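Assess this today:

___
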Amino acid sequence: MQYLFRVVTIFFVCFCTSFIFASELPNVVIIFIDDMGYGDIGPFGSKIPTPNLDRMATEGRLFTNFIVSSPVCSASRSALMTGCYHRRVGISGALGPNAPTGLHPNEETMAEIFKKKGYTTACYGKWHLGHHPEFLPTNQGFDDYFGLPYSNDMWPLHPDYAHLPPNADKRKRGFPDLHLIEGTTVQKEIVTGEIQKTLTTQYTERTVQFIEKNADKPFFLYLPHSMVHVPLFVSDKFAEKSGFGIFGDVVMEVDWSVGQILDTLRKLNLDKKTLVIFTADNGPWLSYGNHAGTAGELREGKGTGFEGGVREPTIAWFPGKIPAGTQCDQLVSTIDLLPTSAALIGASLTERKIDGKDIRPLLFGEPNAVSPHKAFPIYYNKKLLAVRDTRWKLVLPHQYRTMEGQKPGQDGTPGKYVQKQTPLALYDLQNDVGETTDVSAEHPEILKRLQIAADTIIADLGNGNQNGPGVRPAGVHKN
């Protein structure tokens, strides 16, 4: 009887969801922050003023167990765009200005899914999936693009090279000049600090203009902010306003950006036909000290497989569709946004294997809905570090970086990580989200289940420099 009730409930939710969107296609907006920690915004415990995100949470749904595929920029973004583990699409780490690779044009992106249904698409912000023209957003399903091709610290003023004079040999300066790109054309040859101060505002203004221009037709908008990645820059309107230093000021400006978007949707009566997701690519870059965020009670940060590196503060907002003021504690991920979006708009998926799942039951608050992920792999620098489900996490033996016992960075200059070794461990994230106590001895059956899952994952995707049969190549630029 209980099984029959669940089947009927699932049918009812799916029927209602289909009925809701039968008459009009919903708009989708994804706001993607760079290097934001789990504890960096008000709804997740921060004291930095974030009134717009607070309101978004009150009117929407918090996802407290939302993770990314990898705790680093390019790998994480490739997973979001393709609905695949980043390892599957051949993207690892953070692609630099000299990288010949990018997201393979044969991969079907979120934007290309939306184009199937006649959507107008745009990307404003940091791309970081290949800077050569064939890899840029307008060749990956987006109608419009404006932003940085990679991280804003990949410029001659990187802390490792800033002590060199401006006329130093560029080959010794580490990074070339940073460009601002529109479409596939360089709009600004040299991005200066003054330009960086305006980026959050410029991305937001372009976003608002795009929404206004396309108010009468369905659209998909991807806003990957360059902030809160170091070096931190903030416009004059928010400088020294937060009471929490420049990092707090930058978070306040990002919050302002969210407010501009939500207010525009309300003004145009698009709020009840637009899904907005706020999340981030990985955890805080802890070596930067007072210029980095916080992972809250989570362990470690960016560049590690612990929860502080991969669990992100996430809010979903869709007035009248998503139950307001609610919370989901089930495991979901950025890789789920592509198949969920496809299901929302009735678009077919690629025949290529993807790893994301349709999470509409969790998104719309179906009673007793559970995570579709029974074994989610966390890779970093090509190495499988951990496998987890909603409650349990198997951490495999590996070396990791930490600031434990180290002097933190100050004012834009990073501190130095040390390397430590973690043994095989099983953590009960439901009762120990900080990953402090190994409970493998108390739960041998769970340990064995996740170890078998890890072996299955490695058989498919490989480990280290050894790829499995399920890995597809990244794109390679040909001169």
